């Protein structure tokens, strides 16, 4: 295993983390007595496998259903000074409710303290203001820190890049959990900002939100040769020293195996990555056209400034992935979450686009004349049954 200094925390963090949102039994709190023995055994085997591999960071959240209570059956049996435990609690307008939720997390985990406490989902400027106001959740987190129940405080986010940067620049957080991987590099400026503030950087869901890379299309497999899509994406992320750890949302012990192959080639990143990245780019230009592939994203409005709240940039991005790399199932999964994801995945899909006048909001786009038709075609390609976030399941 490889370890990196997790920013100002000075923790030596394994470059892979054991994310805790896919091996639990339910997305609701349950007493341990209602959790099947085979599910609990699988979770414990997954944790033990992670530890055997040298993965020292175990990450969960209050919002991950039975994850915490199930982890509470195994974590107290591990050497406490050899593991880094993170939980996350969503910001609350009532900061005392935030405290109560954290205390529930700690009780379920059966630990005296957590190493990392993340404010879970600072996704809007309003949530940021609510979190850092006097007497808000950050103040409560600081009091928990003073009591020895929390070592370091960070935040997780699905926010637009400018909101993430604004949160980082408060200089109130020790680390950040955010999305960044090959198919979505928009948050690089946020990572660079976090680096300037010496914050730890944890990448959320690089294999799932990063393209459902565990079930890749044949074209994606070809484009990533000689690596698998998972290893290519891991290598791309870890080739940047500003990135400290990648979450592996393991559902079973063997889910770590493919990721470990990254460690065998990490010293060759400078030789391997450019050839694969060139192939990605060439495939996009071949399928989508060079001009579109290079300029589709220019001048697109945010959902708040678009009639009907359409998330035009996300819709076009998903369409590009589906057409260029046959990532249709991934694109459908993400597209049909639009309208149901709230501030975690904002904006609406394009099923009503023919009723909307988008001319004014697209005045800065070089493709304004054809985007409405492309949006309609994308809805026909990807539209279907609505999808909920996992935590809503």
UniProtKB/TrEMBL annotation:
Top-level taxon: Bacteria
MF (Gene Ontology): oxidoreductase activity
Gene3D superfamilies: NADP-dependent oxidoreductase domain
Database matches in SUPFAM superfamilies: NAD(P)-linked oxidoreductase (SSF51430)
Domain NADP-dependent oxidoreductase: 39-166
Pfam family, one: Aldo_ket_red
Record InterPro entries: AKR, AKR2_Oxidoreductase, NAD(P)_OxRdtase_dom_sf, NADP_OxRdtase_dom
Protein name: Aldo/keto reductase
Provenance organism: Merismopedia glauca CCAP 1448/3
């Amino acid at each position: 295993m490889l370890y990196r200094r997790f920013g100002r925390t000075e923790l030596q963090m394994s470059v892979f983390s054991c994310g805790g949102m896919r091996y639990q039994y339910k997305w609701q709190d349950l007493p341990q007595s209602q959790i099947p023995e085979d599910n609990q055994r699988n979770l414990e085997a997954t944790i033990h496998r992670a530890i055997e591999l040298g993965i020292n960071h175990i990450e969960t959240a209050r919002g991950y259903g039975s994850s915490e209570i199930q982890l509470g059956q195994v974590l107290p049996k591990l050497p406490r000074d050899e593991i880094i435990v993170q939980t996350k609690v969503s910001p609350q307008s009532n900061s005392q409710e935030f405290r109560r939720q954290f205390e529930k997390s700690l009780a379920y985990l059966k630990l005296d303290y957590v190493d990392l406490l993340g404010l879970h989902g600072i996704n809007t400027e309003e949530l940021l203001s609510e979190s850092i106001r006097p007497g808000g959740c950050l103040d409560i987190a600081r009091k928990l820190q003073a009591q020895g129940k929390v070592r370091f405080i960070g935040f997780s986010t699905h926010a637009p890049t400018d909101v993430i940067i604004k949160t980082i620049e408060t200089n109130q957080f020790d680390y950040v959990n955010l999305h960044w991987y090959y198919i979505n590099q928009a948050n690089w400026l946020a990572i660079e900002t976090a680096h300037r503030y010496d914050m730890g950087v944890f990448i959320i869901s690089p294999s799932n939100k990063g393209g459902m890379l565990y079930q890749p299309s044949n074209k994606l497999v070809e484009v990533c040769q000689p690596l698998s899509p998972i290893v290519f994406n891991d290598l791309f992320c870890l080739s940047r020293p500003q990135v400290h750890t990648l979450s592996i949302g393991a559902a079973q012990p063997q889910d770590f195996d493919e990721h470990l192959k990254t460690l065998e080639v990490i010293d060759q990143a400078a030789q391997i990555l450019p050839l694969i990245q060139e192939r990605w780019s060439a495939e996009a230009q071949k399928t989508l056209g060079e001009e579109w592939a290079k300029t589709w994203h220019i001048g697109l409005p945010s959902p708040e400034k678009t009639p009907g709240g359409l998330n035009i940039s996300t819709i076009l991005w998903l369409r590009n992935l589906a057409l260029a790399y046959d990532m249709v199932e991934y694109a459908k999964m993400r597209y049909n979450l639009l309208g149901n994801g709230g501030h975690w995945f904002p904006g609406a899909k394009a099923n009503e686009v023919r009723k909307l006048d988008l001319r004014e909001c697209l005045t800065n786009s070089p493709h304004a004349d054809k985007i409405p038709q492309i949006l309609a075609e994308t809805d026909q390609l990807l539209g279907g049954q609505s999808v909920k976030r996992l935590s809503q399941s």
